Amino acid sequence: MAIKLLDANTISKISAGEVVERPSSVVKELMENSIDAKARAITVEIKDGGITYLRVTDNGCGIPFREARLAFENHATSKLKDADGLWDIRTLGFRGEALPSIAAVSRVAMTTREKNTDFGAKVEIEGGQFKGVSETGCPEGTTIVMKDLFFNLPVRQKFLKKPAYEQGLVTDVVSKIALGNPSVAVRYISNGKTVFSSLGNGDVRAAALAVYGREYAQALREVDAFEGAFALKGLIGIGDQAKPTRSQQSFFINGRLIRCPILSLALEDACKGRVTIGMHPMCILSVTVPPEAVDINVHPSKLEVRFRDEAAFRLTAQSLLSKAFISETMIGAFTVPKEDKKAETIVKSVITPKIDRKGSFTKEESKPDQKEEPVTPAPAVSRPVFAPKNTETELSSIFKAPETMVTEVRETPFVRPMARPVPPPAPVNQPKPKIDRVIAPIDFKKTEQTHIERVHVTKQEEAFRLIGVLFKTYILLESDGALIMIDQHAAHERLNFENLKKRLDEGTGAQQLLVPYVVHLSRREAQLVMDAKAILEETGYQVEPFGDTDIQVRAVPFILGQADMRIMFTEIIESLDAVKNAEKEKRMHTIIQASCKHAVKAGDMLNDLEIKSLLDAMRISGAPPTCPHGRPVLRILTKTEIEKMFKRIQ
Hints:
Layout: H1 8-19, H2 23-36, E1 41-47, E2 53-58, H3 98-104, E3 107-113, E4 120-126, E5 129-136, E6 141-147, H4 154-158, H5 163-180, E7 185-190, E8 193-197, H6 204-212, H7 214-219, E9 221-227, E10 230-237, E11 249-253, E12 256-258, H8 261-270, E13 282-288, E14 294-295, E15 306-307, H9 310-322, E16 335-337, E17 343-345, H10 363-366, E18 382-384, H11 395-398, E19 405-408, E20 419-421, H12 434-438, E21 465-470, E22 474-478, E23 482-487, H13 488-506, E24 510-520, H14 523-531, H15 533-538, E25 542-546, E26 550-557, H16 565-578, H17 584-595, H18 608-620, E27 634-638, H19 639-645
Parallel strand pairs: 1-7, 11-13
Antiparallel strand pairs: 1-2, 2-6, 3-4, 3-6, 4-5, 7-8, 9-10, 10-13, 11-12, 14-15, 16-17, 18-19, 19-20, 21-22, 22-23, 23-27, 24-26, 25-26
């Protein structure tokens, strides 16, 4: 077959395919051109997902009349002069391919006017063919209207998805560019309806408010850090803001929207233990690096970049991102918004109410002019903990008492009389509860008392009322403006995790067993354990082969006490199998996580002093308010949120 030189029309259509894949790629190119033109306001309007109609209007510097047609020529650009400039690019565009590529596969009309000129230019192109350039009256700035994408390439048009799908992709691009450029006011219209409109006031949280809504914008955590010429700024969302995919991760390098697996991995490493397994943090992160440290000329779409030193870049990014969580601890999580005022911290201690030096409640709680009914001791009265689900309508049937009952506690200086779950009296010869055998780091006093004893506290400690334990799992605290629910298992698991890490760092993490424990395993499981023997020893375990398939455990992490070895090693083996090819640090982290599962379980009944010990440990711990697997330790319901549930307020 003879070699032939392709004609210009075919070449332009092939080149266009690298830049213009679908309507969203057109929007990206045009918005980046507007930002390079110093626009302070951009309007994006689409119809039918941008397939039949797409408009981008800006108030930028505009294009001189004499250069309006030249802008649609291949590789015509004002942003690059020679090859040396490729390593000092400070604009979003530089290749001179966007406008000719768009015009080659659609019908395009552009109106543009420079500032301080009497008239503008109008350029019309259809399928790469110029239809004319004329003078026109128009506002300062540039408006580009694209119609009928791929009208001259039916095969490409067939590969477009339904308008609703294409609209979603356009929305994603417009949203991310608005988030990455908070100083630009972006208005986005789809099928005649405004989807969102950002203020352009330079505040990334305000841009997030426009795109994601108030709830998400307020919950995002701010990061603003730098190291040398490397600067990182933006917002991070974990907890309820985490997503099952990475689609809500927006990364910008020197203002350019990119896909960056390296930054994504650095972010997830920094958020390790704060995001539930299987979920991914959302983010809006802008990174500033020297232009010579990054190569943006990788692909015509300019969505991919290469770094001169990827390993150093990842480590630096991870270090800076971790700083966003340094001050976030369990006690810091007890920050709830005050009713109708700015958010403020209402907790400094989670274990005791506010008590004066004489041991009585403070004046703030005992003032008679607060019109609060005086607290009087009440006889023990049994009543239901929670109403079971019921389809009957009568209150008597809704509040039918379930098997679990509570008894009101007598008044003490520690707490007002409130409902507390009371376990049945334990037989004299009953073995110690499971919690005393497993929990080593927290010194739970062994007691059978079921009421709360008087506790002396300092003036700095705030007032809380211990309501009780819900479903034998959730510790309930009441403050003046919120209900705080603590997952006893998640809280203790995190405390165990931090204690074990600390002991391992200090070299005191292991305890020898008086009698070695033999664990029966399959051949595959035994081999898996022995392959990880060195790592197991670094995490506090001492294991030796004992026959063909059994192993002998001679030492365990100090915090485990007398935990069930068979169950524990089953979990460790499952965890090791999932990360057998991972790096050493990750496998060690996995073993520690598996070990810490043997904390207070949901359903373990804690008495009052055990609860106090757990809350006291939380108060002094600098650990994050999540379990090692990323689940939250606590939840807060404000008084306003509760009243909205019952329609008492709107």
